[in-house]
Each structure stands twice: as C-alpha cells, then as structure tokens.
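Please, structure for the following, as tokens.
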Amino acid sequence: MKTGLVLEGGAMRGLFTAGALDVLMENNITFPGAIGVSAGACFGCNFKSGQIGRVLGYNKAYAKNPRYASFWSWIFTGDLYNVRFCYDLIPNKLFPFDNKTYKENPMDFYVVVTDVETGKPVYVNCPSWEDDYSLWMRASASMPLASKIVKINGKGYLDGGISDPIPLKAFKDLGYEKNVVILTQPEEYVKKPNSLQAVMKIILRKYPALVEDMRIRHEIYNSETAFVKEEEKAGRAFVIRPEKALDIGKTEHNRERIQKCYDEGRRVMEKNLDALKAFIES
C-alpha cells in the first residue's frame, strides 16, 4: 500500500505547509509520491529538492519587494506575482532551486492545474524544474484575475485550486491508498461563494466552463474537505491542519506574520510527529 502526501494551496497560507514539510525533512520522513496545488505545488516542490528553510528564506527576504508580489506588478505585467522575478531570478540566481537533487529524488511530484477551456483538473507529474515543468508549477499557482493564463503546448491553464483544491480522491485514483494530507484551513472552516463572481463572469466570459468552476468553487471545496474527514475517520488519511485560522494575507508583506505562519506549521507537525510516524509505519 503506497502512502502519499497531499498538499493544499492557499497562497501565503502555504507558509504553514512549508513549516510542516521542513519538520518532515529534518526527521527524514519521505513518501513515494506527493501532489500539490497552487502554493502546495510551488512551495511543496522544495520537499522533493530537500531544501529546508528555502521557502521561508525567500518569502521573508522579498516580502516588501514590489518585484515579488504587488499591485504594480499586476498593473504592468498582468501577474500579481511577477513571473520573471518569482520563476526566474529567485530559483535561478537569488535563492537557487536544487534541480539536481529534485531530479535524483525518486519521489513522484504531481501538480494540479485547471484547463481553462474544459474547466477540468489536469494532473502532471513533474520530474524536473526545467523546460515546461516549471510552467506547470507556475500555472498551478496562477489565480484567476490575479494572473495571466499560462500557455503550455498551445493550451491555457490556471490555478489547480479552481477545479480540485484538495486532490485526495485523485491521488487515491493514482494508486496512493493511504495519505498524509496537509491543509491550510482549520477543521471547522467552510468556504463561502466567491464575492467576485460577477466580475469573473465578465472578464472570463471566453471560458464559460472556468466561470462555472468559480461559481461552484465553494461547493467543490466543501465536498473535498468532507471527503478528507471521511478518509481520516476511516484511518486512510492522517491530516495536519491549523488549529485556528492563520493570521496571514494572500500577499503578505509583514515578515513577522510570515515567520509566525511558518512556525505554526512546524509546531503542529512536531506535535503530531509520533502519531504520523505510526500512521506511515502501520
């Protein structure tokens, strides 16, 4: 029975996931496969590359840098998170991503994206950060309105969280019958309808399937959290989640809040570490 690792997104709430993953790395806990959505993909790939502290490092270093994530980046480039800075300068020069270790690690790492034409989720195994694979990771975290559609092989993709925010069912279908799931919302969280639905309908009118996804996104999310709880109750999932809502914005510029969110992920993982080891070994 294969044990997988499932990583929810959530923009900067992903710092909670980063803290939890760093504890796993420090304790040499590995998995045959992992799947990440949005921030779960862009932050989670550092688990495969074995880079403890990298996510915290560059988020704190560039928290106040307008080239990282800012209104001005969105105005001038169409992307809230500046593509050249986030997907070129940081991984290649400023905070180098260890692609060699990533490629040599036998763990499969899947990312989830949403096909803008069909509105369906697409699951891509990314064995490298190079070539189109970095585009798949970028697409997984490209939020509607805040990002331009990412073109790969002639097709358009956006945030995987639109169509499959917690891909536990999908990962089970890929053969991972038992899973560790890291969420970024507390257990009692219930997602509400998108308040920008009217705006989405106008701006994304060329993509009716995507608009429909956004209309029912809260239903999809709440259904998937219910499934996570079912799997948890049945002993097929071990869930790490915040004990209360995380005090962090979607584009957080406060370094203290960034550190606090990361530290909370570490604390919750350390608190549950023995039970998690027993779950994996059982």
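The CA atoms of residues 114 and 121 lie 5 Å apart. Residues 255-281 form the longest helix (27 residues).
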